[in-house]
Amino acid sequence: QKEVEQNSGPLSVPEGAIASLNCTYSDRGSQSFFWYRQYSGKSPELIMSIYSNGDKEDGRFTAQLNKASQYVSLLIRDSQPSDSATYLCAVILSGSARQLTFGSGTQLTVLP
Amino acid sequence: DAEITQSPRHKITETGRQVTLACHQTWNHNNMFWYRQDLGHGLRLIHYSYGVQDTNKGEVSDGYSVSRSNTEDLPLTLESAASSQTSVYFCASSSGLSSGANVLTFGAGSRLTVL
């Protein structure tokens, strides 16, 4: 079992819809969670970080964390074609100090 | 503006040659990391450093080495390049000093092809 798992997709949603991206992790002691966006041929850039159970909202983006079920999700409301990218989930596993372990990413396409 | 710079951006080399990828950051970050990215594998950690003279092996460190002689630089060396090391390499850094200290800032990446 991979330590951080994501559906590879591709996931396609129509413009204006809600895109839902999911990530599960194996280490129950993990404390820090991140979502990065990566456009094709570019480097990853941070969208959201979340450390506590519940929801965290930033504009059109909402990160949801459920430590009991060991998943973290990213919702993108009013999806735009410019949101088309690969979304990477990253987790700091317990005992790994300051290292991020990444999932393999979910490719999202927003159709005009 | 602070930045993290990787060079070269593209490199083609032959099997068995030594290759060094440079990473230079002006964020004054303590923590620096090297990842490789391959289709289906996401980002995998090669080596990392938490400060000058500190280096540590990551998940996929075989065939790679790093050294940290100052805060700004963490060069990645492939001692004898192999075709399996064809990949995109990303350098990243983080401050490591406070909450949010583990947020990574990435360089633009170095695409390495080993023939």
Short description:
The complex is a heterodimer of chains A (112) and B (115). Chain A has 112 residues and is mostly beta strands. Chain A has no helices and 11 strands.
Mind explaining what this structure looks like?
The complex is a heterodimer of chains A (112) and B (115). Chain A has 112 residues and is mainly beta. Chain A has strands spanning 4-6, 11-14, 19-25, 32-38, 45-50, 54-58, 61-66, 71-76, 85-92, 101-102, 106-111. With 115 residues, chain B is mainly beta. Chain B contains no helices and 11 strands. Chain B has strands at 4-7, 10-13, 19-25, 31-38, 42-51, 54-57, 64-66, 76-78, 87-94, 105-106, 110-114. In chain B, strands 2, 4, 5, 6, 9, 10 and 11 form a 7-stranded mixed beta sheet that branches. The radius of gyration of chain B is 13 Å and the shape is globular. Classes of the chains: A mainly beta (112), B mainly beta (115). At the A-B interface, strand 4, strand 5, strand 9 and strand 10 of A face strand 4 and strand 5 of B.
Looking at the chains present, what oligomeric state does this protein adopt?
heterodimer
Largest interface: A-B, 22 and 24 residues
Average the pLDDT over all residues of chain A and give the rounded result: 92
Query: Fraction of residues of chain A in helices?
Result: under 10%
N-to-C SSE series of chain A?
Answer: EEEEEEEEEEE
**Beta strand count of chain A:** 11
Strand composition percent of chain B: over 45%
- Uncertain runs of chain B with pLDDT below 50, 5 residues or more? none
| Main pleated-sheet profile of chain A | 6 strands, mixed
Number of helices of chain A: 0
Any idea what the radius of gyration of chain B is? 13 Å
Query: How far is the N terminus from the C terminus of chain B?
Result: 37 Å
Q: Quick one: biggest sheet of chain B?
A: 7 strands, mixed
Q: Overall 3D geometry of chain A?
A: globular
Separation of the first and last Cα atoms of chain A: 36 Å
Mean pLDDT of chain B: 93
Number of strands of chain B: 11
Shape of chain B: globular
| Structural class assignment of chain A | mainly beta
Rg over CA atoms of chain A: 13 Å
Tally of alpha and pi helices of chain B: 0
